[in-house]
# Entry
Amino acid sequence: MTTLLTSSIDENAIATITWDMAGHPMNVLSEEALEAFQALWTKHANDDAIKGIVVTSARKEFIVGADINMLWKMRRYEAAKVFSENQRLSLLFRDIETHKKPTVAAINGDALGGGFELAMACRYRVMTDKEGAKLGLPEVMLGLLPGAGGTQRLPRMIGASEALQYLTTGKNMRAQKALGFGVVHELASDTVAAAKSAILGGKVPAKAPWDEKSFALPKEQPQSPEWTQTFAGAGAMLRRQTQGNYPSPMRIMACVYHGLQLSMDKALSYEGRQFTALFMGDEARNLIRTGWFGRNAANRLEKRPKGIPDTQFTKVGIIGAGVMGAGIASCTAQGGCDVVLLDISDEAAARGKQHVEDYFARQVKKGRLKPEEALKIAARVTATTDYKALEGAQLTIEAVFEDRGIKAKVTQSTEAVTDADHVFGSNTSTLPITGLAEAADRPENFIGIHFFSPVEKMPLVEIIRGEKTSDKAAAVAMDYVKLISKTPIVVNDSRGFYTSRVFGTYTREAFCMLSEGISPAVVENVGKATGMPMGPLELIDMVGIDTGHKITHETIKEVGWETMVAKGEPAKALEVIDWIVEDAQRPGQKAGKGFYEYDEKNKTTRIWPEVYAKYPSNGAPVDVDELKKRFLHIQAIETLRCMEEGVVTAADDADVGSIFGWGFAPFYGGVISYVETVGLPQFLAECDALAEKHGKRFEAPQMLRDMVAKGESFYPDETAVAAE
Ligand code: NAD
# Structure
């Protein structure tokens, strides 16, 4: 059996329990580790010869939280069992807190989630003064709450309003801040030595402050005017931020509100019940499945073609130093390799390099990089007009104008100076990869590498395989995405690929609603209420309505309008986009005019009044639920079509792509998890009803009908777990 924890006793009779989980990338609260910890702690706590116990870690980090694999396995439990497992941990921590033997946390590195909760249960805490070490309770991001006393001890230390800010956002607390709050008692470079002297020096209190009769909460007292203000304000703010879609921050608030009015023991039981309710819910499952497992698997390149050696990048070429190319250059340089940024003129190339330098200067200003690091990274980018500079590159990505002819020329010029195994990536947003690859002498090395704007910020990269793209080229593209610390999904070629194609249905549905006489404000608010990051009109303004317009008309030219209509394309949506771009000449935010008006800082002020005039409300009562369904179902249906056509080959790719590509309502876990959450038979019935009322675009693909008929699921493993 591998060792997870060790313990030792020094000459002063102080026991030290050290977390050091062999075979794990980090210290986590796994089932086995907790058992080992409990056994060691109980042994030393009940040994009269021991003066005190120090809990620490031999790793860089202290403990970074619960083992998510363990949590995931608990999804098969009944609620009562989840609750009892939760209470087992909570009571162990409470035992540490109330035991006569002093236990001190020597927090030598990051203490997150359950790791921070364990530290808070110790009656004295020493934290490392190492730069960057942090404390935090990130459970909310997985749709959960800190269920081992975190919602109780933190507010008892720093007050309800401060604690809510950490608990409901998952943000981190640095050492100095923690010291200022009294969350830790001291900072030290040798945390174990300091913890031991705290025990020997009698600094560890006999009871936790909240177990003293005289204890009063810091800041707002229960039922005081400040208390009411805190909770009324926080409730309203959360409602605004989450639109009521995320139950975890609300339950966290309930834990703080009710828990602080109870004894610690009762409060822990209340917290446990709230944890269980969240744990059993759909949101936690969805967020864990896609946000944790799905994304991590993508980041680990689990779907990378097998048997191809890892690519060692030394030089990457980027052609086109515009908005996208310069952003790609910044990310590539940050990934640690040399970048050749090529454009048609010296001025254009220099502008791109300037963009890179400005970006890193902003990172310095925000404290994310040291000035010398920023200079070093930016210096990796060479601006040029000379193709010769691409010699020796493993990969080149073009981000020139969206024009087949220009892209073809650029492809050929690059191939002329690069090796036979050099991979050429196109950042085209719409042009099918197979067609673009026709210009290449080595089409097997041609692949789509689709970034999202703003490149530096957006986490996803969609890799598109053309008909002739080789496994080797796909592997190189995936290695590259890993190099720049983004998340890849690999899809097959299709018009609009996967992400743009599905995302487009959200705004198209909004255009349909406008033309039906649904007020623009209602359209926007319902869009946001579904959990999408923005209303559809604001979103298309940001992306560029003119781009959408151009893509639509190109598609019409190539596919034919009749064919599109026969497949369900709504003519009324086309009228809206033609009106705003052609008649009203409002291409979107970049021009300071779109569906919205913009101030001098280019921020939205209000919806352009003419939109109301052109599309007045029909005055009919609004069925918000149906509008929400239209927004979400239409995206899910298009995704199912992508799966049916083999554009997307796995449900988890679709889910990860939708959340990290265009921000599809994360609490649903992505487009396919949304269908699963609704339930396949129910979803199908709703599609049928929507198709009947609104037309063919809502018709569900045959694949879904077949799956429903056979009782299948996109995530059969979980069904198997649930049925056990
Ligand atoms: P942009 O107009 O900002 O930049 C294009 C750059 O390419 C310009 O600097 C231009 O001088 C340069 N260029 C043109 N012809 C060239 C040639 N023959 N050789 C070298 N350089 C040349 O455009 P952008 O928004 O950065 O878009 C670039 C590509 O990325 C397009 O294919 C676009 O569809 C795609 N894309 C854009 C977005 C977006 O949101 N802007 C998102 C994803 C993909």
